[in-house]
Give the backbone structure.
Amino acid sequence: MRPLTLRRLLLQCTVLLLILFGVVIVAIKFGAVPVSLYALARDMWGVLFHQRSGISTDYVLIIQNIRLPRILLGIIVGASLSVAGTSFQALLRNPLADPYVLGVSSGAGLGASSR
């Protein structure tokens, strides 16, 4: 296995951030109310420069109050789960350690069902 250099690490992080950005755009675009990419880019540009006069209130409700918070919450939850998994593997020094092997999932299921 090749050592991870700073340049390679930055390249990998950049590629992953571009993939995440693409997934966020796709998640904003698709839904019960379709949004065109041109309108999405135009309106986000207006939001960035505080020119919200041309943006309809329905659009603000759908994109900014429903879709964006869900997407951001999904990103935060995914990052938290990855940190928890990495912590399990580092703590136990076992690359195969996961919540099912350790019994954590059974305990979480019991806690969720007893409520």
User: Anything to note?
Assistant: The chain is about 75% helix and 0% strand. Residues 57-92 form the longest helix (36 residues). The chain has a mean pLDDT of 85.
